[in-house]
Specification:
3 domains; 3-stranded antiparallel β-sheet; alpha/beta
């Protein structure tokens, strides 16, 4: 057993855990996830990601209480897409894109923001492009630039989210507020927690495609509203269940509203909080 120090990503308190070197090595093509319970470092629970060198790559607040809808592939993977999937080294992606970084990238995509990723490793450039292209297949359009550190100059990148490792270099609109990233964190946690490379990648692609498809349905609902008519959560949940055969919870619906307003640019005329609450009873 190996004793490792972990730091809470919420309050920076430190604690110690013991991990099995054998278990970590089994995840050598990715990262090994350890759930840190309350009381180990502080009153918070979080996830620590450990690489094959027994180094803590990242610590990550995970919203275990949030329920994601069932994510089932809706499209058959064509030979072209299968070839694209084979070209991605998922282990390399998991080792070099930390949980925090990937969460921030997904949020920026959902907000239709330009993204600049700064990497010191030139060999990651093509892999990151292939990875982003695949996980947004049939769904979100992206505008992403992967650059090396020596190419970086803040003056050249206006209106852009700039990320490097776990650091947020630039986020002028504060869209990467950690208090608002619950669903994105849950998607990333499941991606990193899946040991098999291809299923983890397919899961993440399906998760983003599901969010895109459900958001498009809400866009249609809003566009068909009468003048000054409000939208009620219960009705939206029922329409999504009927059209997509999936049940969603209110936190996930709020996540979809965020996509509708920020990616599709469609304002959601939500009813008052009290009226909306009563409609779900």
């Amino acid at each position: 057993m190996k004793k490792l120090e972990v730091r809470c990503p919420s309050c920076s308190s430190r604690g110690y855990i013991e991990v099995s070197e054998e278990d970590v090595q089994k995840a050598a093509r990715g990262v090994f996830a350890v759930n840190i319970l309350e009381g180990v470092a502080c009153e918070h629970s979080f996830v620590a990601y450990i690489d094959k060198n027994l180094a803590v790559r990242d610590t990550f607040i995970a919203d275990f209480q949030l329920e994601l809808p069932d994510i089932v592939p809706e499209q058959i993977i064509t030979p072209d897409v299968s070839e694209q999937l084979e070209s991605i080294d998922v282990g390399l992606i998991k080792l070099n894109l930390t949980a925090s970084l990937l969460t921030h990238v997904i949020r920026a995509i959902l907000y239709k923001k330009k993204i600049n990723l700064i990497f010191d490793q030139s060999y990651m450039v093509d892999q990151v492009y292939r990875f982003i292209e695949y996980i947004t297949l049939n769904s979100f359009e992206t505008e992403i630039l992967v650059i090396s550190g020596e190419q970086y100059d803040m003056k050249n990148f206006k209106d852009t989210i700039i990320l490097q490792g776990n650091r947020i270099i630039k986020d002028s609109d504060n869209i990467l507020n950690p208090k608002t990233l619950g669903i994105e964190r849950s998607l990333v946690r499941k991606f990193l927690g899946e040991y098999e490379p291809k299923p983890s990648l397919i899961y993440l692609q399906n998760g983003l495609q599901k969010a895109y498809d459900l958001s498009r349905t809400i866009v249609d609902i809003v566009n068909n509203l009468k003048k000054k008519e409000k939208i009620y959560s219960k009705n939206v949940i029922e329409v999504i269940a009927a059209n997509h055969y999936v049940n969603i919870q209110l936190p996930y619906l709020d996540f979809l509203y965020t996509i509708v307003e920020n990616y599709f640019g469609v304002e959601v005329p939500k009813s008052s909080n009290i009226s909306d609450f009563l409609s779900t009873l």
